[in-house]
Amino acid sequence: MLPDKCSVKEEGKGCVNPPEFIVSIISGSDEYMVGLTCKKHKEIVSGKIGILQKEGKMHEGNVSFSPVKAVGTDCVHGDSDDFVQIDMNRSKN
Ligand SMILES: [Zn+2]
User: Fold this and answer.
1) Quick one: average pLDDT of 77-87?
2) What protein residues have CB closer than 5 angstroms to ion ligand 1?
3) Is residue 49 part of a domain?
């Protein structure tokens, strides 16, 4: 089951917007679903994943956004347990 909310947290509170995009990383022929984001947080999520990839905490590959409605959950690897929580506080330091 997909979570029904955006993966971004701001000041300890989860974003309440419904997710509009499935965030996945495409690595060769594999695609890993890593989170969900609303339109507002798309750039932030993309930036954060780039940082996590540099730190070796995320699969290598290109970040891809697919509209939630267009994607059948069967065809993408991933488990909601693997999803990243994008915590806005941590990125500011
Ligand atoms: Zn959001």
Assistant:
1) 68
2) 6, 8, 15, 17, 38, 41
3) yes
